[in-house]
Amino acid sequence: MASIPLLRLSPTTSHLTLRSLPSLRSIKPTCTPSPQPRKLTITRMSYNPTPAPDRLISAVAYTLPFFNSLQYGRFLFHQYPTLASLINPLLPLLSLYRSVPYASFVAFFALYLGVVRNPSFSHYVRFNSMQAVTLDVLLVLPVLLQRVLSPARAGFWFKVMVWFHNVLFAFAVLCFVYSVSCCVLGRTPYLPFVADAAGRQI
Length: 202
What we know:
Elements: H1 52-61, H2 63-69, H3 74-79, H4 81-87, H5 91-99, H6 103-116, H7 123-149, H8 156-185, H9 195-201
Helix pairs in contact: 1-7, 1-8, 2-7, 2-8, 6-7, 7-9
């Protein structure tokens, strides 16, 4: 009878050596730092309103180009009498202004030398005064050009002159209303073709 060899298991193969496993002490836990909450920084906006005297002086400065621009509205006043009635409340002040000899030149130099070139006034007042002076100079140039060319009282060139006067008067009124409204609210008005020239002079 054939003998069947018995399998003998070696006792060394049945045991697992702990040396083959990584040491638990050698494994170091890695902890990722938790993100810190962001700090919210609240900046307070400082609100510095324009003083009332500065707003008043700036608004009064724009009456100089407005009074000098009324001569361009004579054709509109003749064509639309209702527009002339809107100027009636200003007639006492306008008559007082016209009663002073060379009132336009006196007001111009008083505003330029007394306010614009005076560092005691704020930049807000000086800028608005310079803007009013620049606008007044631009409104005087068409009058000088008209005196040199002396257009006829009728014909095509007379119609061009009437149309040009009406446009200048409408532009001057819009600038006056816009500038005075901004000055009353304490804001800085920026007039087209004028603000850049005025800013370079401050």
